[in-house]
Each structure stands twice: as C-alpha cells, then as structure tokens.
C-alpha cells in the first residue's frame, strides 16, 4: 500500500512517454481532465453530494483539500487508456465515447471493492451509493467526449495493457479477500 501513489505516477509516466502526438491541444485536454476531476472530487468529499459520503484514506499519498493528488492523474490515465482500448475497435466518436465510459464504469465497480482494502477510500456505509456510479459514468462520458472532440490521439499499446493490468490486479485483490471469507 505504501507504494501505490508512486506506482500510479510511474504508470502515468510510462504511458505518456509512449504518447506520439504532443501538442497544445493534447496538453490542454489532459490538464483539463486532471483539474476538473480533482475539483469534482474536492467538492464530492466536502459535501457528500456528488459521489456519496466518503473519505480518502492514506493509501494514495499526498492530498489537496482531503483529496489525493494522484486521483486526478488516475482519472487522466483511465480516460486515456479506456479511449485507447475502444478506439482500437471502432473509429466512430460516439461509440468510442460511450464504450470507453462503460469500460471505466466496469473498472470502477471492481475498484470500489478493492479501494477500502487498500486504504484508498471508504464510503460512510461501506457501499457506494448508486449516484457514485451514475456520476462516474457521466464524468467518463464528458472526459471521453473531450478526447474525441479535440482529436487527442490515444493510440497507445502500453496504455491498454496497463489498464488491463490494473483491472486484473484489483480483481485478484477482491477475489482473494472474498474467497477467504
């Protein structure tokens, strides 16, 4: 658990070192996703109105206003990687946007089970409310729409594999804990 935030930073470095088309638009879109996701999480933690009542543990490192900085980086990674995965199979913007958002939602369903086990975050009733998943999906739609609208090239094989690796890692953690019960 102590290395989780560093691992997320290394994942981002690995992925973005393989990005092929750095330009002002790409930097602006990815920065926008980072900033909007952090601000949404800050408001969410402070009010309990966006994702439900939850708080971050110590598993994700340094925080700004009770939200780990790597959360914004993870949103950027998940949007970029899910977009990369879906755009491998279709070039239609609407299908990529909806498909990538759906993939991110499936990822979140698994992650919500693993997060408390790794002291990442915990919901007040130990189970995320339905609005957590609704808002996750809507944000994923918005962010993936931005990637498509501004033509950010997400063709990045390492991004796809790291997404699958992270998802597999969380599935193993959840499966291991629940199989022991």
Key terms:
67% helix, 181 residues, two-stranded antiparallel ribbon, mainly alpha, 4 strands, 6% strand
Describe this structure in a few short sentences.
67% of the residues lie in helices and 6% in strands. With 181 residues, the protein is mainly α.
Describe the structure.
The chain is globular. It is 67% helix and 6% strand. The model has no long low-confidence stretch (mean pLDDT 93). With 181 residues, it is mainly alpha-helical. The strands form two sheets. It has a two-stranded antiparallel sheet. Strands 2-3 form a two-stranded antiparallel ribbon.
Q: What's the layout of helices and strands?
A:
Layout: H1 4-16, H2 24-47, E1 54-56, E2 63-64, E3 67-68, H3 69-87, H4 93-114, E4 121-123, H5 130-149, H6 157-180
Antiparallel strand pairs: 1-4, 2-3
Helix pairs in contact: 1-3, 2-3, 2-5, 3-4, 3-6, 4-5, 4-6
Binned strand content: 5-15%
Give a count of the beta strands, DSSP E runs of length 2 or more. 4
The largest sheet has its strands arranged as 1-4
Q: Which blocks of ≥5 consecutive residues have pLDDT under 50?
A: none
Taking all Cα atoms into account, the compactness measure Rg is 16 Å
> Globular, elongated, flat, extended or rod-shaped: what is the shape?
globular
Encode the helix/strand succession as letters.
Answer: HHEEEHHEHH
Largest sheet: 2 strands, antiparallel
Measured between the Cα atoms of the first and last residue, the distance is 21 Å
Fraction of helical residues: 55-70%
Query: What is the count of DSSP helices, taking H or I runs of 4+ residues?
Result: 6
Structural class: mainly alpha
The whole-number mean of residue pLDDT values reads 93
